[in-house]
Automatic annotation (TrEMBL):
Transmembrane segments: none annotated. It comes from the Bacteria. InterPro entries: AB_hydrolase_fold, FrsA-like. Signal peptide: none annotated. This is Alpha/beta hydrolase. It comes from Streptomyces sp. Y1.
Length: 350
């Protein structure tokens, strides 16, 4: 069972404000910020209550895309209790209602992939520019432990319209609509291997992987092992992020603990034991990687700068630290995407 933990909602507004205002008007975010006084209770002043009230107003007015984004913040940062899970269900409902208005081709489907000796089923979204040929490359893409495929719709839409590739969007194991599977390094990667195998059957056989935040851990893993044809890592933890004694900011200890499948806040020893298995040093010691682009903000409070710079000097790898911004370069996201989009176009198409 998931768990809640002490968390000041105003800390989340302070950190995530640039991300919140990517898809919702600043005035609406400011109004919710002023109304929220506590994190977990589902009552006036509660995080989920106030964000859901905004979402319901958008839904009632037929603004389903905005409603989906607001419900996305209502269930943030973790599906730690019933009201958060209800908010996710409502987000999915509103997102599907919004889909006919998207300026891209969109399909929602369920895929079954191999998982730990059996199978697992997860919802995925396929997105492409209108009229994209069937024999186009496919780009797997995901967010991280707290921002999921529907939350990042604007990013994916921008990519789909800019790239001659079909996007296959999914939630990591332990998160979002894949929260029924705990996040583990091998189990999560096995799910992604199944998605890569599927992706090779629906296009021209060329497959890339773009991961944001913890999604970048898995895209780094795909790229370093050479199991995809190109990989982009944006703010991905790969080595020192999993070292003993690391600290956590803005509630990330509880967010990650829930994704890992703990049913109560883990102690340091439990968490460090779980983290040790994620260290990508064995893959970093190899030289079989696909072409890779590794990007982050230089002032990231979650991922040490080392986890970006460790890729410097590798074969077929470009490394970029965006100045004056933090995790995933979120306050200068346009600059990060200006690096990523042309690199992907060249890597996938040539």
């Amino acid at each position: 069972m998931p768990f809640t933990w002490p968390l000041d909602p105003q800390d989340l507004f302070a950190e995530r404000y640039p991300q919140m205002t990517l898809a919702l008007p600043a005035a609406e975010v400011d109004a919710v910020r002023a109304a929220v006084t506590e994190m977990w209770p589902d009552r006036p002043g509660g995080w989920v209550y106030e964000w859901s009230a905004l979402a319901a107003r958008h839904a009632a007015a037929g603004r389903h895309r905005e409603a989906a984004q607001a419900y996305g913040w209502a269930k943030f940062p973790s599906l730690a209790d019933g009201p958060k899970r209800t908010a996710l269900a409502r987000q999915v409902e509103q997102y599907v209602l919004a889909a006919p208005g998207f300026p891209v081709e969109f399909e929602r489907r369920s895929l079954t992939v191999p998982y730990r000796g059996g199978t697992a089923t997860l919802p995925v979204h396929l997105m492409a520019a209108p009229g994209l040929p069937a024999d186009a490359p496919v780009l797997l893409a995901s967010g991280g432990v707290d921002s999921w495929k529907a939350d990042l719709h604007g990013v994916w839409e921008q990519l789909a319209l800019a790239l001659p590739a079909r996007l296959l969007l999914f939630d990591l194991a332990g998160t979002g609509e894949t929260a029924h599977l705990p996040m583990t390094p091998d189990g999560g990667a096995e799910v992604i291997q199944g998605l890569i195998a599927f992706a090779r059957t629906i296009g021209n056989g060329t497959v890339g992987h773009f991961g944001i935040s913890m999604g970048g851990y898995y895209s780094a893993r795909s790229g370093l092992s050479g199991t995809v044809d190109a990989a982009v890592v944006l703010g991905g933890p790969v080595e020192r992020s999993f070292a003993p004694g690391r600290g956590f900011a803005f509630g990330m200890d509880g967010i990650v603990g829930n994704a890992l499948g703990f049913d109560a806040a883990p102690g340091r020893a439990e968490r460090e034991e779980a983290f040790a298995a994620f260290d990508l040093r064995p893959l970093l010691d190899l030289a079989v990687n696909a072409p890779m682009l590794v990007v982050n903000g230089e002032d990231d409070v979650h991922v040490p700068r080392h986890d970006t710079l460790v890729f410097a000097g590798r074969r077929a790898t470009r490394v970029e630290l965006v100045p004056d911004t933090g995790h995933c370069a979120i306050s200068r996201f346009g600059e990060a995407m200006a690096l990523i989009v042309p690199w992907l176009r060249l890597a996938l198409i040539g």
